[in-house]
Each structure stands twice: as C-alpha cells, then as structure tokens.
Amino acid sequence: MQGNRGPQQNHGPNRSAEQKKPGGTNTNGQQPDSSEQNNSNEALTLDLQSFRKPGEKTFTQRSRLFVGNLPTGVAEEDLERLFAKYGKASEIFINKDRGFGFIRLETRIIAEIARAELDDTPFRGRPIRVRFATHGAALTVKNLPEFVSNELLEEAFAVFGQIERAVVVVDDRGRPTGKGIVEYTSKPAARKALDKCNDGSYLLTAFPRPVTVEPMDQLDDDEGLPEKLVNKNQQYHKEREQPPRFAQPGTFEYEYAMRWKALMEMEKQQYEMVDRNMKEAQEKLEAEMEAARHEHQVMLMRQDLLRRQEELRRMEELHNQEVQKRKQAELRQEEERRRREEEMRLRNEEMMKRQQEGFRANFSENREQDLRMHMGSHGMPMNRNNLAGAAGAAAAPGMASENAAIMSGPGNNSIPGGGQGVFPRGVPGPGDYGSGPNKQRRF
Fold first, then answer.
1. DSSP assignment letter at 28
2. Which of 143, 137, 120 is CA-nearest to residue 201?
3. Which of 86, 141, 284, 302: disulfide with 114, CB 3.0–4.6 Å?
4. Would you put residue 171 in left (φ > 0), alpha (ψ -120 to 50) or beta?
C-alpha cells in the first residue's frame, strides 16, 4: 500500500513551490500585506508581446477564466490586482454570495499561464481554483466534407453572427475527421446557427452533404480530476477498500470481469456493424446522388435547349412580323404615292381646264373690242347684235386660225405692224368663205 502511494519525500518540493506562489503565506505562516504582493507582481510582470500570435483575436471567450473558492469580501479591484501580472483585463465579475468570479485576459496563452500559476494558490487564507470558463456560444459541426478548411468553415458560419474561432478537427496525421468547432462571440448567434442548420439543408460544398450542428461538450482534458477534488463520500471509501489489481481466474471477480468483457465485445461488434451499414448506406446514397445529379444536369441541358429553341422561334416570329410590317409600310407608301400622283394629275387637268376657259373668255373680249375698233375706223354703225353675232361667229369651231390671223394682221391698230386693218384685203365678204363645208378661207 505504501508503495502505491509513493515516497513521502516527493511532497516536499510541492509545498515549497506553494510557498513561493504569489499571494500565498510566508514561511512563518503569516499572510503578506498587499504592498508586498503588488511589488512581487510588478517584479514578475510578463512581456505580453511575446505571447501574441500574428492575427490572433484578443479578449475572446477562450481567454476567460473561472476563479472559484474566493474568500468573502473580495472586490473586483482585489481580483484585478491578483491578475495584474498578466496584463489588463477586459471583464471582471464576482459573485460575492457564492464566492466565485470571472476574468477575461488578452490571449489564450496568457490565460493558460495565469491558470497554471494561480490555480490552488492561497489567497487570503483560502486556496483558489482557476479554470477556463465554459464557452456558452461554442458549437460542434459534424459531417463536414473532406475539403473544408478553417477559412471556409468560418466563412460559412459567419452569416449567423460574429465568430471568434473556427477550426476543423484533424487527427494525428493531419487528416480531417469530419468535425469542426465554431465559437461565436454571443449566445444568440449560436442559437441562430443551431436553429438554421439542424433542418438538414445547410451545405458547405458542391456535393449535397448537409452538416449537423450541436452544442460543444465542455471537457477539461488538461487537469482532469485530482485526488483532492474527488467527493469522498461513503461510496468513495467502499470503492477504495482495495487497490488496483488483476482478478484471479476462478474467482467471482474474474467471472464478472469476463462477462463485462463479452458485453464490451458485443458492443464493439454492434458499433462496427452499424458503422459498416452506415458506410454502405452512405456509398449507396452518394452513388444515387451522383446518378441523380447527372440526370438533373441532363434535364437542365434539355430545358436549356428547349428554351433556346423557343427563343429562336420567338425571334423568327418577331423577324417575320417585322418583315410583314415593313411590307405593309411599303404598300402604304406606294398607295400614298399613287394617290398623290392621281391628285396631282387631277389638279393639273383642272388647272389646264381653268386656263383654257380663261383664255377663251379673254379671247372673246379681245375679239369684240377689235371688231368695235375696226367698225369705228370704217364708219360703220355699231350694233350690239352684230357685235354679238360677230363674237358668236368668232367663237365658232374652225376659227382659231382666223383669230390668229386677225390678231397678227397689219390692220390691227393695237399691234404694231403699219397701222393697217385687220384684214389685208378689206372686210371679207361672203364669197371669201365659200359655200361648202370644204371651202377654205381666202385672204
């Protein structure tokens, strides 16, 4: 029994180390005053710049420490002076009724150093407990595809809120395990990610494999459970009656252990069978999804071809309609041109007709005037009936040449030509015109 406990002399250095911890009692059992404690903290101030990684986020939830077993009457200023060696704290909270508090330091490494140095250190007569605080906004992401990186994981889950850290869990060979850790700055963002992602539709890559999100289990694998923290109740003493040993064959302990071993083997086989069935189901699902994806792509190509054919047909219809409209416009222009030409022709005919009628009226007036002048020059009496008869005879058909001769003859006083009369041989008699229809006028 003494050999299992180890030699007693190994506890000496631990006690001396406890005496050297800041905030503890001195060798005389007296508690140092606050001035000596502050001086020792100032003398041991860390170079914080050397504990910062390039691009590391500061004052995150991972650098938040839980401080328990605090004595009564401890204020926030006392806790701040206790951690002054490790830099400026961004958050200090103390529950005086229950004797615990929280403090947030700058980086994770500084928080680890503070935890290692101050855990189980006497503070005002009581050993305090320093642990990392539970991260209430941390999530575990499962079923991650193979090619998801830390950057892609952070980009994918940043849509739900601000992220402090996002990492893909890998094994000892650096291969992804299909799991990841996402830590948000606030709990509402983590709850939103849980609600949105657990419906089985959030995809990170092209292959349709949805991820599952669960709250991360807060495990302490650094310190574990020391003997001094074990609850020493009646069951504890019953379990510790005998030290660790091997069960001897033929005893009750050996038979009980073998039955436990058989149960664990059966559990292992069941897990292997379930894993094998799940792997086969996943491979089958992947093959079906690949075939469905190929069929979906073919369907999309067919739909795209039909859409292009429909667009081509619509373009042809539009082109035909445009050609038809152009032809109709040309026909309307041609009809309009013909209508204008017809109107122009009718207008010209009407103008010519009006000109002819005006010429005839002017000619009859000139004829009457010439006859009056001619009769007046020969002393003939002017009779309007004769003039009217002469004007009517002048207006008869076949007298156009006679009128022209009269207008241009030497006997017309109004036209220069010697002052002679209209007729060169005097006034024509009845015999000059002949008696038949074929008789020509003689001058």
1. T
2. 143
3. 86
4. beta
**Max Cα-Cα span within the chain:** 188
- The whole-angstrom distance between residue 382's C-alpha and the CA centroid of its chain comes to 111
Evaluate whether 61-132 and 138-215 have a shared fold: yes
Q: Which helix (H) or strand (E) holds 93?
A: strand 91-95
Q: How far apart are CA 229 and CA 220, in angstroms?
A: 14
351-399: pLDDT as tens digits: 988 888 877 777 777 777 777 777 766 655 555 555 444 444 444 444 4
What is the Cα gyration radius of the chain?
A: 63
Question: Tell me: domain 61-132, CATH 3.30.70.330, correct?
Answer: yes
Distances (CA, A) of 288 to 144, 283, 293: 20, 9, 8
Q: Tokens for 134?
A: 């539970």
Per-residue model confidence as pLDDT tens digits over 410-425 = 444 444 444 444 444 4
Alpha carbon distances (Å) from 414 to 302, 370, 391, 419: 100, 9, 18, 8
The answer to pTM > 0.70 is no
**Contact indicator for 200, 210 with CB cutoff of 8 Å:** yes
Per domain, the residue ranges of the chain are: 61-132, 138-215, 247-352
Tokens of 59: 């004052």
Question: Between 3.40.47.10, 3.40.1350.10, 3.30.70.330, 1.10.150.120, what CATH number should domain 138-215 receive?
Answer: 3.30.70.330
Tokens representing residue 353 in the block? 């007709």
Q: Which residues pair with residue 203 across a beta bridge?
A: 210
User: SS3 breakdown of the chain: % helix, strand, coil, rounded to 5?
Assistant: 55, 10, 35
Two tokens at 246? 């091997």
Which residues, in sequence order, are CB contacts of 64 under 8 Å at separation 6+? 91, 102, 103, 104, 105, 111, 132, 133, 135
Could you say which DSSP state residue 176 is in?
E
Burial class of 215 by CB neighbour count within 10 A (0 to 12, 13 to 18, 19+): middle
CB atoms within 10 A of CB 35: 8
The one-character DSSP state at 189 is H
Residue 216's closest CA among 188, 182, 256?
182
What three-state secondary structure class fits 73? coil
Q: Which helix (H) or strand (E) holds 18?
A: helix 11-20
